[in-house]
Amino acid sequence: MKNKIEPQVTLVGAGPGDPDLLTIKGAKALAEANVVLYDALANEELLSFAPKKALKIFVGKRKGCHAYSQDEINQLIVDNALTYGNVVRLKGGDPFIFGRGSEEIEFVESFGIPTFVVPGISSSIAVPASQGISLTKRGVSESFWVITGTTSARKLSTDVALAAQSTATVVILMGMSKLDQIVALFQNESKGAMPVAIIQNGTTPEEKVGIGTIDTIQKVVAENKLSSPAIIVIGEVVGDSKKRAGFYKELKSNHNTVLVYGKE
């Protein structure tokens, strides 16, 4: 007699890119998976934590290139859980930070399938930290905003304009295609000299960092072909970082200075 299939789905946060930043609980969940559905931002090295016999399905989405629509992904999760039992949905960063994790959980639970969530280290915090940028620092920044640069309507979030008026550190995900608009909003608030860091492929060997100010960051991006996936960090804490202190000291005397570097 065949064992009865007992479906369950676990959303696992894959972290910001470096496979070593997966949580121990996430690794344990992968080790018990019969099926893993993984995103484009989930490092494929993490699949080694799953059993060799486990089915691995790429369901990643990049700008202009979707392996599956979100509705198709939702259905794949359910179908595989009902067919194979234990499904791990591996999502970049944290599943609930602009990851549509709640939508997937709600869809799966509508079929009566048990669900679990393993939080991940969000790139919004870990990537700046890896560059020595403290999003909050006593005497420099009392808060930080984490904002999606592109809404479901493919427009710039209106929260960016509000954040530009504040003294908070601003972290923008999925905002590279809206960089010109972002810059204009901060310039409208007379913040042209505000330090900015753009971190592409953060915490990975392909990491590339561009730093400058609101007034110079477009030049950094254009000349060095910075692109998605990248995080935009705007605020005095960028200039206050010990790793960047010398650069910003020079920047104050030469407003057009820019810098880009990658990992060696």
UniProtKB/TrEMBL annotation:
Pfam families: TP_methylase
Entry keywords, A to Z: Methyltransferase, Porphyrin biosynthesis, S-adenosyl-L-methionine, Transferase
GO biological processes: methylation; siroheme biosynthetic process
Residue ranges annotated for the Tetrapyrrole methylase domain, each copy included: 9-217
UniProt keyword Methyltransferase present: yes
Pathway(s) annotated for this protein in UniProt: Porphyrin-containing compound metabolism; siroheme biosynthesis; precorrin-2 from uroporphyrinogen III: step 1/1
Family the entry assigns: Belongs to the precorrin methyltransferase family.
Family annotation (PANTHER family): S-ADENOSYL-L-METHIONINE-DEPENDENT UROPORPHYRINOGEN III METHYLTRANSFERASE, CHLOROPLASTIC, SIROHEME SYNTHASE-RELATED
Protein name: uroporphyrinogen-III C-methyltransferase
Classification of source organism: Bacteria, Pseudomonadati, Bacteroidota, Flavobacteriia, Flavobacteriales
